[in-house]
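User: What would this chain look like folded?
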Amino acid sequence: MSEPHPARFRGRPLLGATAHHVARRFTYGVTPELTAQIKAAGSWARWFDRQLRPETIPDRAADALASWWPSLGYSPAQLWQRQRDEVEGGWVVMENYQRWLLMRRITTQRQVQEVMTEFWLNHLHVSVGHDAVFTHRVSYDRAIRAKALGRFDEILRTAIVHPAMGMYLDNAVSTKQHPNENLGRELLELHTVGRGSYTEDDVKDSARILTGYLVDMWRTWEASYSPKDHWTGPVSVMGFRHANTDPDGRAVVDAYLTYLARHPRTAERLARKLCVKFVRDDPPAALVKRLARVYLEHDTEIRPVLRALVASTEFKAASGAKVRDPAEDVVATYRALGVRVAAPPRSENGWAASALTWQADTVGAVPCAWPRPDGQPLENRAWSSPARMLASFDVHWVMSGGWWPSEGITYRPPAQWLPQPRVRFDVLVDHLCQQLLGRRSTAAILAACLTACHDSMAVTPATLISAEHGLVTWDFHRVLSTILDSPLHLTR
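Assistant: Here's the prediction, encoded as structure tokens.
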């Protein structure tokens, strides 16, 4: 039996193939509102260029989220005192930070900045699960977010000397008497040039260069630079050499990090990682080489690299080649269903704004919680297991039915999804695909929707659906969840 032929609903104009592909890769989900914004810009290129200048885009709804979890704005000393007084544990602060992140991804108009902030927070990973970092972790986010579309040498300097990174990778207790090699090693292995580029002697000098950035842990949590704790003497790392005679070694650190940021191996590794994130898991070597060259020619500036990436034929040919990770799936589902989430009461953990992290965790991962310093995987195979798919299907099912989360959230009633008072089932499926996916239905999606509804409603493509039809009053979740379960939603 052949698949049914999909019908067509004449709704608002949709994005062209390239614009839709750009939107899927550089936002957290195509919505009718996003489609209208890109159309209003005149072209996807103009929309993308403005997104690269986030300061020009008002973002009131996302900014208002700061009031939902006030302790995210508290000082390190205040957060520590609240934990000591058993008012609010550090782990609660970090859970609320993760919830804020997910809500911001759902809400923000600065979608490209948000996607790139996530990219850098993953590349320069500081796990929220570390015992101490809750005191400085939100400050770390703000610092990286402010530079996410700027130059990598500045992003790198911001991250490496930040107290959150220092605590996470032990540089906050590294002194000239006892240099700790953890950050010095990961700076080379994970953040810049990569394995095979350096020796153990390089690691030792890398650690010595970074000494002096301290945090008064478990007391005041004040971050400082201590010249008396900085190791002095000649240092040499992969061709970087410095006499390092001044006890105030911050100038040496700046020179060292600038050297690493501009190193050809760093350029190649960052170019490849951007390709794995935004193109495909096995990016063409020629594309990686071109992007690395753009990176070096523009003094580590990220905007030109992103422009070159989206303009490449390799990017345009990679539509549908990337699987959404668990958090991306949850965020995209909220965006697709158009739900409205309310601010949680101070003592209420059951509201949707709190349930977001539990949903992402059920699917497989929550933001910034990867337990190792290498950051969450970007490759498809990490997020393509049968267990993950079933978990995603469950989230789609319960949210399509409006069953959970059930507090602090407003779902769109089934009848409001109908484009007109009476509509053929096949036309309705096409309309829903336009709403949920930003594209037309396919024969496979229509067949799947017919199968999902057959046992309970026995609908056919020609069945007329109205607000009084049993499909709308009882089983509309079957159609919504089937579309959300499709590869067109589960991929970027």
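The chain has a mean pLDDT of 97. If you want, I can go into more detail on any region.
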